[in-house]
Write a structure and sequence with these properties.
This protein is α/β, with parallel strands linked by helices. Helices cover 45% and strands 10% of the residues. The strands form three sheets. The chain has a five-stranded parallel sheet, sandwiched between helices. Strands 7-6-10 form a three-stranded parallel sheet, sandwiched between helices. Strands 8-9 form a two-stranded antiparallel ribbon. Helix 2 packs antiparallel against helix 3. The structure holds pyridoxal-5'-phosphate.
């Protein structure tokens, strides 16, 4: 088993541990009385211990299911254990847990398991409700946990546009770990019982806490301020999330606090329907696709087009006696959705004021950027735009020799003075690695000695490289 320190990402660690658990439980089930059974049993327990703290941040398979696996292991029901682990791993890999509940008991037939999820048609996929997870932060007893889960479950209605499942964690630190580790989380409900410290000591998870920055000192906080502070920190690390604060404090004492991007404060109330509707509405607002929606609408309109006539809206294809196969390959929508600023179609990319503007503003909010601009000319043009936007003629730029050629063109257009950086060779694989830190420092020191350090404007690397080598980004930055 690989040591945990070999992992950069908790996501990768989680998925590897589940795969290892599947392998070991399969071996145990096939030979439960064999000479290596005791050793395999020990390894299974070790893996379950390892996975337990990771799983507390995910809705699926969830703590109840995880306890069930532990019981199967304690009782040496290896067949059942191997079966449940296999089913969980399949659902995690295919994403089936997002579409339906996954029974773990062998007596429960999972009819749909036979249908390979990967073979679902795009149309069938488009019809399933999008799924997300909602983080509840509250230090509650097991009994309260059950009550909270059933209260949330009762709110779900068939007419809801989305489905969600809760993840419940006790503390501010756990909440910050959860939102960075679990990308399914789309909304956070901070409740009155939130505590400060996580009891989870896995260093790979604790590492997430360093993302909130050294300037944030939460240790000196008063407990009554944990909730408000958490709202503020969430806005800092994942600004796109919808945050709700449930508090038993008075309006006056909350009013002056910085709550980040908190959408709504619930004072002293457990109105789950109201909360449920807010959560759905919040996600619905972010699910808005102004440009795509306008495009679909536009494609349905009968439109007279008087420019570039032979090709517009696919007529040259649909009326051709020869290239019907091309029309069949792409389908009609791609041609009906053809739009042009010249013919007053939807909006102008160069001077947006309609759906493109709205879509760019929403994208900027999602990325936490001041502005986002869409481009239709591919990444090459975007790279040139960025380079020309940042680099002035005569600026010195350190460029990885293996960067995509668009960067080099960008340098020419910007009039930059380029210092090329060499990557290290990986002779045994006949390929190149990345640019070593040593090389970057060496070039910078050379420029310093020449008195040109103040002219260095940019360092341009490609992560991962074209041969698939990734940098330790934090270290290089
Ligand atoms: C790292 C990198 N940059 C830029 C590009 C250029 O993308 P486009 O073909 O969209 O211009 C690519 C495409 O392969 C790329 O891999």
């Amino acid at each position: 088993m690989q040591s945990m320190s070999d992992y950069y990402s908790a996501i990768q660690l989680r998925s590897d541990r589940w795969s290892a658990l599947q392998d070991i439980t399969k071996k145990l089930a096939s030979n439960p009385k064999g000479s290596s059974a005791a050793k395999l049993h020990g390894k299974t327990e070790e893996l379950l211990d390892m996975l337990g703290p990771l799983e507390s941040y995910w809705a699926f398979p969830g703590t109840a299911a995880f306890d069930y696996l532990r019981r199967q292991c304690d009782h040496k029901n290896y067949d059942d254990l191997a079966f449940s682990v296999r089913r969980i791993l399949r659902a995690l890999t295919s994403g089936a847990y997002r579409r339906r509940s996954i029974p773990l008991d062998r007596d429960d037939t999972d009819n749909e398991e036979l249908e390979d999820e990967a073979l679902l048609s795009p149309e069938a996929r488009a019809l399933t409700k999008p799924y997300f997870e909602v983080l509840f932060v509250d230090n509650i007893s097991e009994q309260q946990d059950r009550w909270l889960r059933s209260s949330i479950q009762r709110m779900h209605r068939t007419e809801d546009a989305f489905t969600y499942q809760p993840v419940i964690v006790p503390s501010l630190e756990d909440a910050l770990i959860a939102i960075l580790f679990n990308h399914n989380i789309q909304a956070v409900v901070v409740r009155p019982g939130v505590t400060l410290k996580s009891k989870n000591e896995l260093s790979i998870l604790q590492r997430y806490l360093s993302r909130i920055g050294d300037d944030e000192d939460v240790d000196g906080l008063q407990p009554e301020n944990y909730g408000a502070e958490l709202c503020r920190l969430i806005a800092k690390v994942r600004p796109e999330l919808d945050t709700y604060l449930v508090t038993d404090r008075s309006v006056e004492s909350i009013a002056g606090l910085d709550l980040g991007l908190c959408r709504r404060v619930f004072y002293n109330q457990e109105d789950f329907l109201e909360l449920h509707l807010n959560i759905l509405r919040g996600v619905q607002a972010r699910f808005k696709t102004p440009f795509f929606t306008a495009l679909v609408e536009y494609s349905r309109q009968p439109t007279g087009v008087f420019h570039a006539m032979p090709i517009s809206r696919g007529k040259s294809i649909s009326r051709s006696h020869w290239i019907q196969d091309m029309g069949a390959f792409y389908g009609p929508n791609i041609f009906l959705a053809e739009t042009s600023a010249t013919s007053g179609g939807l909006d102008s990319l160069l001077e947006p004021h309609g759906p493109i503007k709205e879509a760019q503003e929403l994208a900027a909010r999602a990325f936490g950027a001041k502005h986002t601009f869409f481009a239709t000319n591919g990444t090459s043009t975007c790279n040139k735009v960025v380079v020309q936007g940042l680099v002035r003629p005569g600026d010195i730029v350190l460029v990885d020799r293996d960067c995509h050629k668009s960067h080099h063109y960008g340098m020419v257009l910007a009039g930059a003075q380029v210092v090329y950086l060499d990557s290290y060779p990986l002779n045994e694989y006949s390929m190149y690695g990345a640019v070593p830190l040593r090389e970057i420092k060496h070039q910078l020191l050379k420029l310093k000695a020449a008195g040109k350090l103040d002219r260095v404007r940019m360092l341009l690397l490609t992560n991962c490289t074209f041969d698939g080598v990734g940098y330790n980004v934090e270290r290089v930055m």
